[in-house]
Amino acid sequence: MKLIQVEAHGFKSFADKVTLKFDGGVVAIIGPNGSGKSNINDAIRWVLGETSSKVLRGDNMEDVIFAGSKTEKEMNRAEVILTFDNRDRAANIPHDFFTISRVLNRGKGSNEYYINGEVARQKDIKEIAMQSGISKSSLAIIGQGTISDIAEATPERRREIFEEASGTSMYRSKKQEAMRKLERTQEALEQIAIVVSELEKQIKPLQKQAEKAKAYKLMSEQLKEVEVSLLVHDFMAHSERLEVLNSDSLIYKQKKEDLEIKIKLYSEIVKQKNDLMFNLDNTISTLSTRIDEITKEISDLEIRSARESKQREMLINGTLESNNEQKQEALKEELNNLNTKIILAKNFIKKQKEKISEINQKMTDLSALKNDHKRNLDSEKEKLQKINSKLDYIEEIKYSKNNLQKGTKNIVENAGLFKGYKALVSEIISVEEKYGLAIETVLSNALQHIVVDNSDTAVKAIEFLKSNRGGRATFIPLASINPKYVLEQHIVVAQTQKGFLGVASELVSTAREFDILKRFLLGNILVTDTIENANRLSLLLEKRYMVVTLEGDIIRVGGVLSGGQKNDHTSTFGLDEQIKQLESIKPAILSSISEKQNKVNELDQEIQKLGSLFSNLSLDLSKHELSLGENLTKFDELRIQYENTSNKKLDSLETIDIAYEIQKLALERSELLTNRTSQNELLQVAKKEFADANSKQSSANNELNILITENSKQIAEKARAEADISYAKQRLSEQYNMLFETAKELYNPEINFDVARKLVNDLKSDIKELGHVNLDSITQLKETEDRYNEVKKQEKDIIDAKVTIEEVISEMDKIIIERITNTVTLANQEFKFVFSKMFGGGMAEIRYTEPDNLLESGIDVMAQPPGKSIKNLKLFSGGEKALIAISLLFSLLKAKPLPLCILDEVEAALDEANVIRFAEFLQNLKENTQFIVITHRQGTMERVDKLYGATMQKRGVTTFFSVNLTEAKKLID
Asked: For residues 612 and 695, is the Cβ–Cβ distance under 8 A?
């Protein structure tokens, strides 16, 4: 293989494209110092893969790109192309000719390699160089420094030179690569052993977890089968109960309407009868007054008549017959007796009337008092009904609000498993009803966020949800959050604005430990009364903060608005407090209802007693008034008889007039008495009807109160039934992901539901006893076992690979020993000849420093020039060292010829005679090796096959051209 062309552009001083062609043999490149002739050496070394900028005489790799001069601009790209004749197939490339090239662009920092114009790796080019023996580290490129290195090298470094010459370096490289592989393999074995150990540790607990998970799944399936049937059964039972309650509700409405109609009717009757009794009382009182007046008039007339009769008697002087006297006395006595009875009867009737009037007034007062108590009682009952309705409504609201997401619900139900669990946001924050809608709108879904102490608790809870397929939840770790705030100057501005109510975090209350939570959630949110004021405030503060109104309208950061019609709304906040307040009110109301009901009942009983007494007294009064009327009539009749018998002879006109007047008054009184008796009878009937209607009204009121109480219970029962139905549906949906219609298909009506409920409790208890269950453990166990088997297989493969690598290393060692031994032996033979030729006699020898360790032994060079003692190469003078090193180099080239060798001023330290010997040896070796010699020695120039001259016609830019010996001498002079 021969180098037939070098092309360089932008590399070091080659600003202009340089092309050098070679025909084999010995070619010399000459030029004055600083002309850039050695840059050809660097260019070839660079293409062959050199990565050290120091070796290339620079500070960094970009220094190889032409840096510019006073006349030329810097270049951004360096490229070198080597063309080889490969007809001997020294390189393992299926082409007679091939090129290798390297490109570097300024600023990119990455190199590009090409083989025959196609992108290649640096490794590919290094392999070609190694195969052909022209790698950058071989004897193919030798400068003055290399000759010095050979002379001054340690035995170990000198061995490397021999390995390069013998082609062993490729095998050494392969061995090193194999050693690295072996090291990596050993590391892989150690790592995989750790993995195996770790997997073995994982498998045992996973087996236990998997057994627990299988038991959990089995019991869960059993629980599902039974509980679904129970839930369907409960759903149907509660639905039937709800239908009955709805039907009862219709009946209640009808009964309530009927009772209210009755109560209204009885109330009207009571009022009518009360008015009638009042009117009858007035009529009877008027009649009694008139009767009393007439009785007095009659009495006055009788007294007058008696006085006149007595006067007449005194005038007559006993002229009446004795029989009339006797009769008159009898009548007089009877009249006196009857008059006494009449007076007593009048007194009795007067007292009875006073009693009846007193009782009637008392009944009226008690009825009024009872009506007052009844109104108060109805008011209290209405309050109780409203409270019960409000409680039922709040319970329904609370139930719907507490319809937590699956993940949140699972954490809440298992809160005992997490020491750092605090509560839901909705349970922590309290707010006045006035601000409830605003705060709830802002927090929205955050109300269901779970507050925990720190992120570790949140991580454990999330792992719990994952392992139990428990859904998702959001956690707020108190230790991780930071408070949000509104800048003080902005608060000052906001406080001057109409409708501003405050910062949201200041309008809610929490326990002290949760102060940071409310400031985290609400610390940078402003609250106003209306959307107009909110918009004005947002614009004033440049839309930096969220602003919310009491009606739940929001202006977000940046100015986005959301809001609209206000729906009926009950805030989530304070429901428990409302329930507590309402429940605290109920006992007092119930006590008041009981007290007022007892009082109404007592008044009813007292009114009924007084009514009965009133009736009895009125009846007795009627009897006495009737008797009085009869006695008065009889008295009038007797009085007439008495007057007729007193003096028939004296029948004056005046006596007739008095008698007539008395008779007339007596007739009027009799009519009045009859009328009063009739009115009394009507009054008794009215009182009886009043008492009856009043009793019926009271009874209807009691019945209505009982009905309302029962309805309140039915409303509560209906709410419970609806909640139970909703719970059954929710349980089916969340726990088993089933609709009722689907669950109904699994319903088994034949099961014993009492036994089933016990079984559900037992299964839940058994599942709970299992504790934490990793449902993924079954899959994890299989995956871990599969991984374990796979890793064990990998471990076996690695062990097999290790054995193979060790075999390769052993084989490389054999090849290295064989090749180095062969090379040293051949080189030793040549070295003796070359040394003698170069020194004109003497002897030299190549020796192993460790003959028993040919694999690693260093190499020493011993020499004895003519007339001197034998000694180590290091002990010779500079010129002798250089000549011995060159002799050693030529010995190696004779023993192991290279296709190309570049010599960069290696003979500089030799005297002229030795330079000639050096040049002549090149001619002897050129048959097997192509030489490119960079030199300024005349003895060398005179004995090469071709000369190239290097100059800098433009400052800083190297130019090459072919020259003859004469031109060459002028050039170096």
From this structure: no
Annotated ligand binding at 32? The verdict is yes
Instruction: Report the pLDDT value the prediction gives residue 400, as an integer from 0 to 100.
Output: 47
Which candidate, 883, 884, 887, 861, places its Cα nearest to that of 872?
A: 861
Q: What is the pTM of this model?
A: 0.43
* 682-726 pLDDT, tens digit each: 888 888 888 888 888 788 888 888 888 888 777 778 777 777 787
Number of other residues whose CB lies within 10 A of the CB of residue 178: 21
Q: Is 35 annotated as a binding residue?
A: yes
H-helix or E-strand containing 777?
A: helix 777-839
Give the confidence band of 320 by pLDDT, cuts at 50, 70, 90: very low
Residue type, 635: F
The torsion of the CA quartet 949, 954, 955, 957, rounded to 10 degrees, works out to -60
Contact yes or no for 142/882 (Cβ under 8 A): no
38 annotated ligand binder: yes
Read off the pLDDT of each residue in 549-556 and give the average, rounded to a whole number.
92
Calculate ∠ Cα 56-57-63, nearest 5°.
80
The answer on whether 155 is annotated among ligand-binding residues is no
Per-residue burial over 449-484, b = 16 or more CB atoms within 10 Å of its CB, e = otherwise: bbbbbeeebbebbbebbebbebbebebbbbeeeeee
- Lowest average pLDDT, out of 496-500, 589-593, 840-844, goes to 589-593
For the stretch 627-664, pLDDT in tens is: 777 777 777 777 777 666 655 444 444 555 677 777 78
Query: Which residue is it, tokens 């007892």?
Result: 598
What is d(CA 205, CA 218) in angstroms, rounded to the nearest whole number? 20
The response to whether 879 counts as a known ligand-binding position is: no
591 is in an annotated binding site: no
* Residue 89 Ramachandran class (φ > 0 left, ψ -120 to 50 alpha, else beta): left
Q: Are 30 and 117 in contact (CB under 8 A)?
A: no
Q: Put residue 840 in one of left, alpha, beta given phi > 0 → left and psi -120 to 50 → alpha.
A: left
Distance CA 464, CA 192 (A): 30
From CA 571, how far away is CA 397, in angstroms rounded?
Answer: 9
Beta strand 930-934 with 26-30: parallel, antiparallel or unpaired? parallel
Q: What angle do CA 588, 594, 596 make, to 5 degrees?
A: 100
- Per-residue pLDDT band for 516 (boundaries 50, 70, 90) equals very high
Rounded average pLDDT over 942-969: 86
Strand partners, 475: 450
Cβ(372)–Cβ(365) below 8 Å = no
Q: Give the tens place of pLDDT for each residue, 32-45.
A: 888 888 899 899 98
What are the angstrom distances between the C-alpha of 72 and each of 58, 426, 951? 20, 78, 16
- Dihedral sign for Cα 895, 901, 904, 908, please: positive
Alpha-carbon span 98 to 3, nearest angstrom: 10
Q: What is the DSSP letter of 751?
A: S
Tell me how far apart the terminal alpha carbons of the chain are, to the nearest angstrom: 35
Measured CA angle at 524 (ends 520, 529), to 5 deg: 125
33 marked among binding-site residues: yes
Q: Which helix (H) or strand (E) is 391 found in, with range?
A: helix 322-401
At residue 88, does pLDDT exceed 70? yes
Domains assigned to the chain: 1-140+899-973 (3.40.50.300), 405-568 (3.30.70.1620)
**What's the mean pLDDT in 786-807?**
90
Helix pair angle (168-316, 653-736), 10° resolution: 170
User: How far apart are alpha carbons 12 and 103 in whole angstroms?
Assistant: 13
The answer, yes or no, to whether residue 56 has pLDDT greater than 90, is no
Asked if 900 contacts 864 with a C-beta cutoff of 8 angstroms, the reply is no
Can you state the percent helix, strand and coil of the chain, rounding each to 5?
Answer: 65, 10, 20
* Side chain identity at residue 125, one-letter code: I
| Nearest of 341, 359, 360, 355 to residue 624 by alpha carbon | 341
Q: What is the pLDDT of residue 483?
A: 92
